[in-house]
Design brief:
The structure is a homodimer of 350-residue chains.
Chain A (H helix, E strand, L loop, with lengths): L23 H15 L2 H4 L5 E3 L9 E10 L5 E2 L2 E2 H14 L4 E12 L4 H18 L2 E10 L7 E12 L13 E5 L5 H11 L15 H9 L6 E3 L5 H13 L2 E5 L7 H10 L13 E5 L3 H10 L7 E7 L6 E4 L5 E3 L13
Parallel strand pairs in A: 5-6, 10-13
Antiparallel strand pairs in A: 2-7, 3-4, 5-7, 8-11, 8-12, 9-11, 10-12, 13-14
Chain lengths: 350, 350
């Protein structure tokens, strides 16, 4: 018996409730769209779970890294990427930031009835391409459909599993007084690119999302042998909020140097006009690194050689502060508090 | 510095956009609600990924099982559970069905602006309780908020990781002609319970969802030493669709015995009135097992001793069929096709 009489109409078709039913239409969607794009042996077994093996799993010192993120970004397509590539990069990065090699992703889709299959196919293709580029496999998945008006096009959850060596201990709690604070490049690109797409703003020099995998940069940083204490990506809430979170976890203060923080002129300009602060704007392909002060310069030099770290900079240092404040030496010579993001600058940025 | 001035108002508060911003309000929600309920060392590290170790990870024959599911069930609360307990049981089961011991879950929440915090707290507490009962830890998570009207209360994604021994090979592709087909209990309870809640139907004898962890039953089944070929839970699409999927994967046919399939009288009654077929209705705490015919009776006897297998039954056998049909010997003595679910009987059942 043929399971389906015809192929999905990927040009003009739309998601309907039967695509989430568990029945024939769902099997068709999975087979003709997801399984074809994500093609790998674990997925091809068509079980409800992926069964996985990797030589790193059998190293005595191997430990597991596990992370999850749901993506609800609006709009779904933006300069420099779409929800699909973002969902791969974002979770790959969260796994990699503890020094793990990301290996496997899951993908859970919540589709709104009526969503165009052509757009879904484009998103899936971006996911597949991003996964290939990151060296990870999308090994298990799930598709749900909700009625029109009960979601917003597509939401994607990706969870990621990777392996790292127990000799590594990258964690916010290891940040110490005297550590240097580095960032791998320009702050604010992702948020400004998404906002521009949302508001139909045009710039002379278009700002692209920085959505990208950080694994290769992290791997190169680890290979320098620098004593990295912690890595984190400044996504929602931006650099300012992420540093506050980390200061809180580590029980330290931080002092930033405003003039050292890399922000593109175009991003700075947009932010000034719209009354936004680039330090609170999400990044999706940048990291913050903490290491002992005396190792910062050689680490920086190496980062700048890497394509994802060309505009890296040392932006401040960790100080003793029982109140765990993040403060900033301003360009004008003063000092100001860099507080947590209090409200909501840009909703649905990731 | 105190991060927040006050506690969340869990009695009258509602989710607002700031709870998804990455800022202070989100940190408060995570700390006062999620981290408190799910409390474990990996989560407490407050990194963007959980770093995990387990003695099973270091067994030479250990393999990884990885599964994901998004839950969009409506209504969120139903007789026998809610979206939180369901999200734990469902993913724990998908991991366990390859013989793995489920160890770790991720939890990704998509919250609709305006959703009552009291209901969210109840859902979180159910998740935490279900996780404790299953012996798994919720080690990493994510929270997103979308505007009112862009989701439907709460959607939850859980992904699960477990470990199994490479000597086990439970997979649909291993199903063989001559295998017995067993189910662990009554079919259709979950779907009918949810539909009753949705439609405000009342029965003399209320039908409860069967949402439960199958890990303990599976573990007991494995310990009998029976040569299990495959296990699967008949969720969306019910028994009929799941068997068709498996027949397709294994390249076999199946012949069921209608009279042997356990269905509660109350469920059968509701289905008759509403024109539904219990074989297409979702279950959330039942499994289908395939093993050589001669091992089926002792396996069945053991299953019936287990609380989750009291009403287990042998319901049919695997036959040679190049067309991969699932057929059924009916109570009236005839034979009919049991096809894939074609349309959508009950949307948003899980």
């Amino acid at each position: 018996m043929k399971k389906y009489d015809r192929f999905l109409d990927l040009k003009n078709g739309r998601v309907d409730m039967t695509h989430g039913s568990g029945g024939r239409a769902m099997a068709q969607l999975i087979e003709q769209l997801f399984a074809r794009a994500f093609d790998n042996p674990a997925l091809a077994e068509a079980n409800d779970q992926a069964r996985l093996d990797h030589h790193l799993l059998h190293h005595e010192g191997s430990r597991l890294a596990f992370s999850t993120d749901s993506y609800v970004i609006s709009p779904l397509f933006f300069p420099g990427g779409n929800i699909g590539s973002l969902a791969v990069h974002g979770t790959v990065n969260d796994v990699a930031l503890c020094g793990a090699r990301p290996l496997w992703l899951s993908a859970g889709f919540i589709l709104e009835e009526g969503f165009p299959l052509a757009q879904l196919a484009e998103i899936i293709e971006s996911m597949a391409e991003a996964a290939r580029h990151c060296g990870v496999q999308i090994v298990t998945g799930d598709t749900k459909v909700v009625e029109k008006g009960k979601a917003d096009g597509v939401f994607i959850n990706t969870s990621g599993v990777g392996l790292y060596d127990a000799s590594l201990d990258l964690s916010a709690k290891n940040i110490k007084e005297g550590d240097a604070i580095l960032v791998s490049g320009f702050m604010g690109d992702h948020g400004v690119a998404v906002m521009a797409a949302r508001e139909n703003l045009t710039f002379d020099e278009p700002v692209l999302s920085d959505s990208a995998s950080l694994y290769s940069l992290i791997d190169a940083m680890l290979k320098t042998g620098a004593d990295l204490h912690a890595l984190r990506d400044p996504t929602r809430g931006g650099l300012a909020t992420t540093l506050n979170e980390m200061a809180q976890t580590a029980g330290v203060g931080m002092l930033l140097d405003e003039v050292a923080i890399p922000v593109r002129e175009s991003v700075r300009g947009v932010c000034e006009i719209l009354g936004l602060d680039p330090l609170y704007i999400a990044n999706e392909g940048k990291l913050i690194a903490f290491c002992p002060c005396d190792q910062a310069e050689p680490l920086l030099a190496m980062m700048r050689v890497h394509p994802e770290g060309r505009n890296a900079a040392i932006i401040g240092r960790v100080v003793k502060d029982d109140q765990h404040f993040v403060e900033m030496q301003t360009t004008l010579g003063g000092r100001r508090m860099v507080d947590w993001l209090a409200g909501e600058q840009l909703p649905r940025i990731c």
